Amino acid sequence: MSSSSTETGFDLRGLVESRRDETMDLLKDNINPKLAKVFRTIGFDRVYPRGEGAYLWDREDNKYLDCLTGYGMFNIGRNHPVLKQAVRDYLEMDDAWKIQMAPMTLPGLLAEKLLQKIPHLQKVHFTNSGTECVEAALKFARCETDRPRVLHASRSFHGLTYGALSLNGCESFREGFAPFMPGSAKIPFGDLAALEEALDTSPTAALILEPIQGKGVYEADPAYLLGAQELCRSHGTRLIVDEVQTGMGRTGKLFAYQHVEGFEPDIVLIAKSLSGGYVPIGAVIMRDEIYEGVFSTLDRCVVHSSTFGQGGLAMACGLATFHVMETEGWIENAADKGEKLIGGLRALVDEFELLKEIRGKGMMIGIEFGEPTSFSLKTGWKLIHKADGGLFPQAIIMPLLNQHRVLTQVAGHHVDIIKLLPTLTWSDEDVSWFLGAFTDVLKKVHKFPGPLWSTAKDLAKAAVTSRR
Ligand SMILES: Cc1ncc(COP(=O)(O)O)c(C=O)c1O
């Protein structure tokens, strides 16, 4: 039976609305004062009470184009009506979820669906996040192979818990947290000879790779993926493909590994958009032999699990997300709009000397800037980079938001790269919105001295002061 907030005495909407003005203070005082300061400094301190599809609305009801989508968790768009109805239905069902010592229908259904989509694998283990998928995959590969060593690539990102952080190719995330998991070793991304040497050096449980690296948006060459598969197979090493960011249609196929014919990784990791962005979720999909090697006897049947894994609401949202994917054509749309976006951006490279390279596939796009050749721009570039290696892209994302209502992100620490992870639901008008906004910002940043360079200089001063 549903009841209204007047009946229950708990008025969620009223509570949130009555405290909306205090949003920044609540963050600053209770959660993360440094983040609050960053938001204020770069003008990202606006509050968005509403989101729908590819858009956000601020308190004055201005509409924004979201190219960040909560780090890629809203592939089908925010607050999709099918998802909302599934959540309502689930709540109305009064489901006896998480009995733990009883079989449950919803997880079985979502696992069945995942295995239909990844037909070369046979078992699914559910988690509550991307990083938890990585932890599980690590344990499974080490346990099944009885080897401790795990390889990861330079620039890789697989999450921030200890196992995943041990496989993180970016030093900035690791600083202050050593020592890491024994047996973790880094190899250069895309280098088959280095991989072969590493595998020959000592027995290795697993290699973990992102088909397109999130930090900087670097795509693995298909020949590298197939070569890595062959090397792993010949060395008895499990190949884990992390599709946490690239999965669920983002690159124009359901999973990015599926762009490469004949590529069949041993373990596939999915999270983020699997639940449409509604509920924490993750899934580790693996070969039967791996499952058998870990959950090997009756008394080991729950040797790896977590209380909230297979949560009913998450499972319901996963099934609803697949329904949307199968009926609304968003994967094909991602391929189409991604091509238009990438094409439009590449056309700007010759015109604007600060623009170096456009990379990506579907709706996962990296825009890299580089040192210009003309004297005045070069001066500005050098000054900003001397003050702080990570500031230049801020001077791009700030006017994109403040002048064009386009929300974007920088693609990593100390890189001159912006990343786009939009919803898969963009229209041609959205593509034009972004390209128009970006071109305008590019024009402005090619004027030195100019307001964007002054902003960058102010940021540089703020960064230097905060380090003191
Ligand atoms: C490729 C990849 N793997 C793992 C993770 C970690 O996922 P989560 O943030 O859900 O722990 C991320 C997060 O951005 C990711 O991009």
Quick overview of this protein structure:
The chain is α/β, with parallel strands linked by helices. 45% of the residues lie in helices and 14% in strands.
Instruction: Measure the end-to-end span.
Output: 58 Å
Strand content bin: 5-15%
CATH homologous superfamily of the largest domain, by name?
Type I PLP-dependent aspartate aminotransferase-like (Major domain)
CATH architecture descriptor of the largest domain: 3-Layer(aba) Sandwich
What strand order characterises the main sheet? 4-12-11-10-7-5-6
Which oligomeric state applies?
single chain
Radius of gyration: 23 Å
**How many domains, in number, for the residues?**
2
Classify the helix fraction into a percent range. 40-55%
Q: Which fold name is given in CATH as the topology of the largest domain? A: Aspartate Aminotransferase, domain 2
Uncertain residue segments: none
Bound molecule types: pyridoxal-5'-phosphate
The residue-averaged pLDDT reads 96
Number of strands: 17
User: CATH class of the largest domain, anyone?
Assistant: Alpha Beta
